[in-house]
Design goal:
Blueprint lengths: L1 H38 L5 H33 L10 H28 L7 H7 L2 H15 L3
Helix pairs in contact: 1-2, 1-3, 1-4, 2-3, 3-5
């Protein structure tokens, strides 16, 4: 099966990148929705529309894209001869991927709070939080492309 994995590597890598882009788009957009949702009066039509948008984004796009990203990433990591596990960059990258997973989880908890009208965070909080996935993405891309250590 390893010969199949080696032959399929470019296809799997492409699917990994596409799913990662979809996941990142959600990780960047959902906190932005929270910024606007936090400004909407509780119980308003606008607030209810945000709830629908947030749920559809997370359940319909982000979570499936995250699962695909992780799945294709595991296949890539398991492809013989592609990753030198003695290098530090891969471990740093994996730590950042775990951080994105934790951020995804936090976003779902915040969405739960909005859905029950119990959000306690400010617009400013969500504006700051909105920047975090960009910083992690920059770190991951630099680690994968440059492999500095």
């Amino acid at each position: 099966m390893s010969a199949w994995l080696i032959a399929a590597y470019p296809w799997i890598k492409s699917l990994h990148i596409v799913s990662m882009v979809a996941w990142m788009a959600g990780l960047l957009y959902l906190p932005r929705l929270y910024v606007y949702h936090s400004m909407a009066p509780v119980g308003s039509d606008r607030s209810e529309i945000f709830k629908i948008m947030e749920r559809r984004l997370q359940r319909g796009i982000m979570t499936p894209a995250m699962i695909a990203t992780l799945g294709f990433g595991l296949v890539l990591a398991g492809t013989p001869g592609r990753v030198d596990w003695r290098m530090g960059w891969i471990w740093a990258k994996l730590a950042l991927v775990v951080a994105l997973g934790a951020f995804h989880y936090a976003l779902s908890r915040w969405r739960d709070a909005f859905s029950t009208n119990s959000n306690i965070h400010s617009t400013r909080f969500f504006r700051i939080v909105n920047e975090l996935p960009t910083l992690v993405l920059i770190g991951i891309v630099l680690l994968v492309v440059v492999k500095p250590f």
